[in-house]
Amino acid sequence: MNNLRLTVIPLLLGAGLFLSPTAAGQQGDARATAAPADSLDDGPHVFWQNDTLPIVFYLCHGTMLTARLAPRDTVAFTGRCADSTTEYRLPTRAPAPERATWEGVPRILALSDVHGEYDAMLAFLQRAGVVDAAGHWIWRDGHLVILGDVFDRGRRVTECLWFLYRLEHEAATAGGYVHVMLGNHEMMVMRGDLRYVNARYTNGIVRTSRISYPDLFGPDMELGRWLRGKPLVVKLNDILFVHGGIAPELVARGLTIDSVNALGRASLDLSSAALAFSDVPRLLFGTTGPLWYRGYVEELKDRYAATTDQELDAALAFYGASTVVVGHTENRELTRLHDGKVFAIDVSLADLGTFQGLLWEHGAFSLVTGAGVVEPYR
User: Fold this and answer.
1) Would you tell me how many other CB atoms lie within 10 Å of the CB of residue 156?
2) For residues 61 and 38, what is the distance between their CA atoms, to the nearest angstrom?
3) 274 — phi, psi (to 5°)?
4) What pTM did the predictor assign?
5) Whether 342 contacts 326, CB under 8 Å
6) What domains are defined for the chain?
7) Cα-based angle 122, 48, 32 (whole degrees, multiple of 5)
8) At what angle do helices 157-173 and 118-127 cross, to 10 degrees?
9) CB atoms inside a 10 Å sphere around CB 83
10) Which residues face 295 on adjacent strands?
């Protein structure tokens, strides 16, 4: 891993990546140096021209800023826009696919469907005690799960991605972990479906640079490399995390966690023709795939019925889980379903004015409100 960051807070980023702020940038709130909410500024983005030659570029105050960096084992550069007090160090090695099954995790907090709402995400994590006032990891050995859909709709997708990238490294250093998972909107952007991309990007860096939005997250881009190592399904202890859900067909096909993740990652860059004629990838990215399936929460007319308790129990038994946590289908508040075997955690930010999260600790689940109050389920 590697990385840089947009919403300049002093930071350490991805595995092997180190970011060193100058003294002037070491204090203050994480949002202090971010671009204004109505700005079209965006970046940094890093294009790997080959394995050792990166090009860093921004849209800054309406102008494209570009720098070709010298090839080294570790690349260093200083931020060139709102992050001008920050030095980035990026190793040239792309990240390996992430481990998806964990045992002995002491505590877990899950959050879903951020959709570019950086300020609301940061405020929630601060109030929940995961990060401090400057946005740095303080949750020791806890595991934070971001259950997909960081992309689309909101105006601060890039800020969210760099923040989570950096937080991964800080958590790992402290003995914890950040699991950033793929949702349908990550898949949509990487495969060229731009229906929900915010105009900040299409009117800004895309128009100015003439680089398509999907190509900003392609396999030769730093964020694209990072995203292509992310899982579709994760199991922590006996809790299954998946953005949409596990349809009965996945169980009938015998698709394990490892096979879903490996095949999903390998299929992200298939052509539309190859995807159309590839049975399992088409399933994984289709209506009943793990990124889109809504059966735990509702039926989809003319496509599938709502999941039965028997189908849910079969899926949990197949994956060795007792509970499944999903996002994707919005609810007015965090919702417990199927006698507590399913938690649906995509909440309406418009209705609540804040995110909610699901906490697991000491063998029990709790709701974490937007104010950071922990309300145990009974």
Assistant:
1) 26
2) 12
3) -65, -40
4) 0.90
5) yes
6) 18-91 (no CATH), 101-376 (3.60.21.10)
7) 25
8) 30
9) 28
10) none
